[in-house]
Amino acid sequence: MEFCETEVGMEKAECECLTDAAEETLDDELFAKFAEIARNNGEGEVAISGNSANEQRQVFEFILEAAPRCVFGQE
After folding, report:
1. Which of 4, 15, 16, 74 has the fewest CB atoms inside 10 Å of its own CB, making it the most exposed?
2. pTM for the full model?
3. How many domains does the chain have?
């Protein structure tokens, strides 16, 4: 949350929405990877191409579902 608000510059409600969506969409291991990057102020890398097909699917589902809803207010 803090990284989302301070480093990315998003509103608190947008960050909460994205965090909730990530928890719902990503499995525990993949969510932990993203959380670790956020705890390290964006340092680190989750290389989508290096992940399994299942992880890639989860990331794309998260992006396609959460970004329009959380950031642009589209349902």
Report:
1. 74
2. 0.70
3. 1
